[in-house]
Amino acid sequence: MANVAVYNMEGKEVGTLELNDAVFGVRINEHLVHMAVVQQLANNRQGTQKAKTRSEVSGGGRKPWRQKGTGHARQGSTRSPQWKGGGVVFAPVPRDYSFKLNKKEKRAALKSALTSRVRDSKLIVVDELKFDEIKTKKFKAVMDNLKVTKALVVLTDVDEKVILSARNIPSVKTTQVNTINVYDILKGDTLVLTKDAVAKIEEVYA
């Protein structure tokens, strides 16, 4: 089992924590990690793009000129794709881009992402994150103490003071254990977990 240092909000080491290999020490499956990221990005797409085909553009009912004898190429409608104001060839239509991943695949991908953060030494465990007021300056100070700039901060439950304190820092995102996902873990340069969050992740995914 991997051992990681536990820090306080001042950035001082206050102990160590043994991580469960069933969650933080699995064999990394890059294919499933890739699929999980693609799925999340695909599921986030609105899919509302739309353009009109030649059958949907208004006008163009009359043949522009007679078939032969004008010297022009033959034309049947002013709404053909080659005309200005004509329809679009193979026009995009609204569609659903989402697709499904099996539960076991999702869990395996998440464990792989967590393991990669441990192996790359980009996982920091904090004994607790508590603020007595909503203050971005205080949260920024904690990140500076931990020597972290771009991070995903995982909390056990919704803590409004912590979440609102971090909201104005563009490079920091907060989430809860029940909403963590592969894309956010990989996008944040460092994964910051509270001790309680580690325990809950191990409880849910071990």
Automatic annotation (TrEMBL):
<dbReference type="GO" id="GO:0005840">
    <property type="term" value="C:ribosome"/>
</dbReference>
<dbReference type="InterPro" id="IPR023574">
    <property type="entry name" value="Ribosomal_uL4_dom_sf"/>
</dbReference>
<comment type="subunit">
    <text>Part of the 50S ribosomal subunit.</text>
</comment>
<comment type="function">
    <text>One of the primary rRNA binding proteins, this protein initially binds near the 5'-end of the 23S rRNA. It is important during the early stages of 50S assembly. It makes multiple contacts with different domains of the 23S rRNA in the assembled 50S subunit and ribosome.</text>
</comment>
<keyword id="KW-0699">rRNA-binding</keyword>
<protein>
    <recommendedName>
        <fullName>Large ribosomal subunit protein uL4</fullName>
    </recommendedName>
</protein>
<keyword id="KW-0694">RNA-binding</keyword>
<dbReference type="GO" id="GO:0019843">
    <property type="term" value="F:rRNA binding"/>
</dbReference>
<comment type="similarity">
    <text>Belongs to the universal ribosomal protein uL4 family.</text>
</comment>
<dbReference type="GO" id="GO:0006412">
    <property type="term" value="P:translation"/>
</dbReference>
<dbReference type="Pfam" id="PF00573">
    <property type="entry name" value="Ribosomal_L4"/>
</dbReference>
<dbReference type="InterPro" id="IPR013005">
    <property type="entry name" value="Ribosomal_uL4-like"/>
</dbReference>
<comment type="function">
    <text>Forms part of the polypeptide exit tunnel.</text>
</comment>
<dbReference type="GO" id="GO:1990904">
    <property type="term" value="C:ribonucleoprotein complex"/>
</dbReference>
<feature type="region of interest" description="Disordered">
    <location>
        <begin position="44"/>
        <end position="86"/>
    </location>
</feature>
<dbReference type="GO" id="GO:0003735">
    <property type="term" value="F:structural constituent of ribosome"/>
</dbReference>
<keyword id="KW-0689">Ribosomal protein</keyword>
<keyword id="KW-0687">Ribonucleoprotein</keyword>
<dbReference type="InterPro" id="IPR002136">
    <property type="entry name" value="Ribosomal_uL4"/>
</dbReference>
